[in-house]
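Weekly structure sync, notes
Attendees: PL, DS, HV (note-taker this week)

Item 1: HTH lysR-type domain-containing protein
DS walked through the input record. Source organism listed as Bordetella genomosp. 10. Sequence as pasted into the shared doc:
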Amino acid sequence: MREPRARDPAIARWPYAKMRDTFPFLPANAPRRSRMITLKQLEAFFWAAELGGLDPAAQRLNTTQSAISKRLQELEGVLGISLFDRSRRRARITPQGDRLLALARDMLAGRDRIMDLGTALSPTVRTLRLGVTELTAMTWLPALVHRIRGSHPRVTLAPEVDTSVHLMEKVRAGELDLAIVPDAFRETRFEIVPLDSVDYAWMCSPAYLDGVSHLPLRDLAAYTIIVQLHASGLGDMVGRWLQEHKVRIEDSLSSSSLTALASLTLSGLGISYLPRRMFEPLIASGQLRVIQSTPALPRVPYAMLYDRSTADDFIRFVGALAVDTCDFTRALSAFVPPR
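Item 1 (cont.): predicted structure, written out as tokens:
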């Protein structure tokens, strides 16, 4: 299992040099088996490990950083193991923590399936026409499909993968029930369910530009930029951002496909903006190089949108599932095979 990146230096400052073996609410001689772990503790550990810090875990769980820290201290005390190695400047998950991470993921997934059964009050018989862009299809769409099927087994799922502009046209025409797209579409008829934001970065192959790790934003215009166009909401958002910073791209290649953009970039044909977490394995292997710009690319918010006038309780239920399931950090392992 790939070691999650730890970004939060606060982890390294936790007072774990000598953890107490008991907690104030337990007798000093209480046997270890009598001290129960909780789902909240596992949840805090899971998201701190997955997202790389206390603060993003607290934001994900809608709580405070101190609450996450307390739950992790309790979990380590009950288990009697260190979940993070704090000998470095940035804490890293330990081998014991890595094993617990897999178990915690399974337990939390089981919890979600149980909760979904409780939410499914009626055996809904219908077809859900769900539109997503490539990024969602390549990350957390399988998890969302699994949860919908677990709670409503009689629902027929009809997903459609397309560009965000085309998907929204189909929502307007009533050809799709909902769409998960970059949050670039603001119309009063749409209910907008915020999901998460994605960290994009400028990337290129070392064959195109080697030895450069930072460029002022305006200097990027001197290179070939591979952009998302052709009915891409993301491309429109990045294009407006570049215009705001008075950057005009003179030489470009374009596609509406994330897969095509990645292929063009790996081929050494230019610099593109790609979701960083999805391509971390290729960055680590040296096949892609990240170029920091000043200013940096903004995070891109994503949302689920549906027509208010036609939505029912089931569509709103799917929206709640999407909020809980959304995870753009976990790419499908077969997306880009190593060279």
